[in-house]
Amino acid sequence: MENPALKVALLTREYPPEIYGGAGVHVEYLARELERHVALRVHCFGAPRTAPEVAKSYQPWPELAGAAPHLQALRTLSVDLAMAADLEGASLVHSHTWYANFAGHLAKLLYGIPHVMTSHSLEPLRPWKAEQLGGGYALSSFCERIAIETADAVVAVSSGMKRDILAAYPAVDPDRVRVIYNGIDPDQYRPDASQDALHRHGIDAGQPYVVFVGRITRQKGVIHLLEAARFLPEGLQLVLCAGEPDTPEIAEEMRALVAEANRRLRVIWIERMLPRPEVIQILSHARLFVCPSVYEPFGIVNLEAMACGAPVVASAVGGIPEVVVDGETGFLVPFESDGSAAGTPRDRERFARDLAGRMQLLLDDPERARRFGQAGRQRVLDHFSWAAVARETAALYRALVDERS
């Protein structure tokens, strides 16, 4: 360890084995690499952990149990209060997502230590969350705003994300926003020739298939992928590794669209979080991976697909154009929002047709798909690694702590 005197408290909702999305993947790998540089202690939501780096995990106050949407936000704040109470003695606190941002802000106030927050997404750019959280969306927005405007440093996971931060929060000093990309472990995410996971889930390895991996949310755009399915060739395999619907309404909408798509395509819908080795195997054999997100500050899932040798067709939103090189590692699909809370494309049918058209180019040309997949894997090796992310992050910690001393 380079600097055992630098005691860093990492605050997060997600931590293994409870990983739900890209932010959780980010924290998992960042923590592993940061332990080489600083004395790291992780504080996370959820069940007790046995990992030695975990200082404590936290459950919400039982008095806040209930199904009302706003109670979810209140339960988050109860965890943040408990977290903040345990952070005395840390040299610096680093929070991830609005779920833990408020705890980081409180630690800064209580103990006079620097607060670093990594911005994985922005509440003002996710208005559809009001559907999920009700009045709790105002609380999540409050937690993010007070943290981002007062943090000693804000880490943006892409240059596009930095632009969004400064537009959404003009009170933030641009000099306090540091771009540090997400990373990936290319030794773990690599092409896997095995096919047992495909057989287990009923995927025909002898026929091309398109794969989507993500949660069922407005943000991830899986609804738009299913609308694009109307313009894809009959009989195509469409593999949806998609679970965790945000609301009953979007779950019902998803089921209706899957039923419609199944009349023309062969839809294989895996409605649960798969073990990582199975996801890697499914990505490795796909003709292409599709990311139809309407908002994506970085899109770590695209790196995962590229590392496994899959070409990517993705919406040209947020930080995705910094990851996917159009015409080299995949295709980017223009996207223009209608400004609604659902983040719907301004011209819904055109977006669906454009998405299907880019997919068709790779379905019709397996050699081009192979070249794009190889180029994507090489891009991951050349530009994205967790070791580099951790080095930059640890250097930021040292600079902030030195300013205080």
Describe this structure in words.
There is one protein chain. With 405 residues, the chain is α/β, with parallel strands linked by helices. It folds into two domains: 3-183 and 385-404, Glycogen Phosphorylase B (Rossmann fold, 3-Layer(aba) Sandwich), CATH 3.40.50.2000; 196-383, Glycogen Phosphorylase B (Rossmann fold), CATH 3.40.50. The protein is built from 14 helices and 13 strands. Helix 6 (159-168) links the parallel strand 6 (153-156) and strand 7. The two termini are 21 Å apart. 50% of the residues are buried.
How large is the share of residues in beta strands? 15-25%
CATH class assignment of the largest domain? Alpha Beta
Q: Determine the structural class based on helices, strands and strand pairing.
A: alpha/beta
The CATH superfamily of the largest domain appears as Glycogen Phosphorylase B
Shape: globular
